[in-house]
Write a structure and sequence with these properties.
The protein is an alpha+beta fold. It has a single domain, classed as Jelly Rolls (Sandwich). A 5-stranded antiparallel sheet has the order 1-8-3-5-6, with no helix packed on it. The chain has a 3-stranded antiparallel sheet with strand order 2-7-4. Strand 5 and strand 6 form a beta hairpin.
Length: about 140
């Protein structure tokens, strides 16, 4: 079975946000699969996807703080500045983290580790809703 669907995630402020539940709610067919894979691709250049800690929100906050130290706003060497001080850093963070994830499906569930969840990493102050292309393959 193949399924492909575009999911629009609600707008979120800048930061790392746990979206596992929101993704799963929009893919109810996953429960029917014994084995498979979910591929997620974000259709934006200033946000990214990651898998990390799903329990302690301090992890998400610490990741955001660290990314802001690694990739500061208003760096004097940025040429791309027309869309605001958060735009070029958002592009860099998106390249560092990446636009896609592949997650195995086992017995109708995502085969994530006990403490793992799917993150939407929003790198803009006002990013708006974000579109993900979800492709499911399995049987």
């Amino acid at each position: 079975m193949w399924i492909q669907r575009t999911l629009t995630l609600s707008a979120r402020p800048r930061g790392c946000h746990l979206v596992t539940r929101e993704v799963l709610e929009r893919l109810p067919e996953l429960v029917n699969l014994e084995v498979g894979v979910l591929h997620l691709f974000i259709q934006h250049t200033s946000a990214s996807l990651a898998i990390n800690e799903n329990a302690d929100p301090d992890v998400r906050d610490d990741l955001e703080r660290h990314l802001n130290v690694m990739v500061p706003e208003n760096a004097p060497y940025y040429a791309h500045t027309l869309e605001g001080p958060d735009d070029m850093p958002a592009h860099i963070k998106s390249v560092l983290i990446g636009p896609s994830l592949s997650v195995p499906i086992s017995r109708g569930r995502l085969a994530l580790g006990t403490w793992q969840g799917i993150y939407l990493c929003e790198h803009r102050d006002q990013g708006g809703g974000r579109r993900l292309v979800a492709t499911v393959q399995g049987e």
